[in-house]
Amino acid sequence: MTVKIVMFLMIVLFIGSIDLEAQWKRKEARNWQKEMNVSFRSETESPLEEIDRIKFKRLPFFKINKKLALRVKWERCNDSSWFEMITTTQRRPIYRKYATLYSSIGDDSFKLTAFQPQSLFQKEGWENYLFIPFGDESNGNQTYGGGRYVEIRIDPGKELVLLDFNKSYNPYCAYSKRYSCPKIPVQNILDIEINAGVKYPANKYHH
What is the pTM of this model? Predict the structure, then answer.
């Protein structure tokens, strides 16, 4: 009887692992890249200055890396009161700390704080959306010096969430002074290099 129970638990854990693994598909990362390129070409959606948009062909991306699509353990933050997030301008959007994410890349472990925007959390379809501004050792070299963003959708009923650094992107203020962008919180500046997502050719954009 005991053996049957152990076997059952192993099967449940295995199925749970497969379920989360199935959430990541290389094709989805490719489609995300295509969508980003389309938005940057768009007259109405592009963050680029017009002189840059007209010449725009495609964004520079790191090669999609399955090892940087991570199964991440998360915990709900104890201190989850709303606060004004510091941005590159005087604008102060309202967020709250929602979750702490724990994972590792190679031998390097790390944790990140994921934030919930007050403007979205009550909107249908956005209840589980979280925003993660982060910095890493690639900033100022192959990526934007001011850090990058990545987003996740969290399932409150599951212990793990998919954190796909292949979908990391630059703040819009990297491309134009028209934008106001959240600055990277100190606790989210990592001392590891994450070569995934959108690169940033610093001398290419007029702003």
Answer: 0.86
Q: Is there a domain that residue 166 lies in?
A: yes
Question: pLDDT tens digit string along 161-170?
Answer: 999 999 999 9
Going from the C-alpha of 194 to that of each of 60, 80, 173, 177, the distances in angstroms are 15, 28, 21, 26
In a domain, 96, yes or no: yes
| Structural domain harbouring 78 | 60-188
Residue 207 has pLDDT above 80, yes or no: no
Return the percent helix, strand and coil in the chain, to nearest 5: 25, 30, 45
- How many Cα atoms are found within 13 Å in the side-chain-facing hemisphere of 58? 8
Whole-angstrom Cα distance, residue 207 to residue 205? Answer: 6
